[in-house]
Amino acid sequence: MVKAERQLSGAARPGAWRRRLRRRLLATAGLRLCGDLGLAGLDVGVDDVLDAAVAAWTARRVLAGEAVSLPDPPERFGDGLPAAIWVCTQ
After folding, report:
1. How many C-beta atoms lie closer than 10 Å to residue 33's C-beta?
2. Helix (H/G/I), strand (E/B), else coil: 68
3. Where are the domains of the chain?
4. Following DSSP, what letter does each residue of 33-61 receive, concatenated?
């Protein structure tokens, strides 16, 4: 389980120009969102789609070893699984 914290992932503030910036940043990272994301508030908000893409990007970077955990090392709870927020380092 990986918790991606959008505030730590950069360019997370809503707004049309921020949405365009976030799409460009995601595309640069290899996550291209195809087509129009629709009108915010109908099915899913545009910011929610962008947040999901940032979470996928973060998970990919954790898997590639390009992230560190906060705290380091992760806490372990009763189930033995590590619990942390992962921050990308590159």
Report:
1. 15
2. strand
3. 6-65
4. PPS----TTSSS-HHHHHHHHHHHHHHHH
